[in-house]
Amino acid sequence: MSRRSKKNLSLAHLLGGTQSDIQCGVSLGLQVTPEVLLEKVAVELRAGYQRVKLKINRAKIWKLCAPSAMFTPGILLSVDANSAYTLAELEHLEAFRRILTS
Questions:
Q1: Whole-angstrom distance between the N-terminal and C-terminal Cα of the chain?
Q2: Fewer CB near the terminus (10 Å): N or C of the chain?
């Protein structure tokens, strides 16, 4: 029997967490078109997810992410490019962030 179950404490409490609930999210892979991606985002939001992480690549960052943010305002959106960018491109990514959060 684990220490947690003997003491009847949650894992969050044992790790120093302060919240009893967290916002759960879903990760969506690359999609063929922005329309397909938007439909997948909508399906997951209707299912109750509050966070959406989009897998992106250099070619599709603007095409796929900007519409998701514009047509689903208020969602917690993050993107994952799997190290496709370097610090030299920080200005480009900062411009993208400004568009997504405006």
A1: 50
A2: N
Residue whose tokens read 């759960």: 24
Range of the domain at 52: 24-101
Element (H, E) at 26: strand 25-28
DSSP 8-state secondary structure symbol assigned to residue 85: -
Distance CA 40, CA 34 (A): 10
pTM for the whole structure: 0.67
Pairing of strands 76-80, 25-28: unpaired
| Separation between Cα atoms, residue 33 and residue 31, nearest integer Å | 6
In a domain, 62, yes or no: yes
Yes or no: say if 59 and 85 are a contact pair by the CB < 8 Å rule: no
Burial of 92 (0-12, 13-18, 19+ CB in 10 A): exposed
What DSSP character marks residue 52? E
Residue with tokens 């916002």: 23
Number of domains in the chain: 1
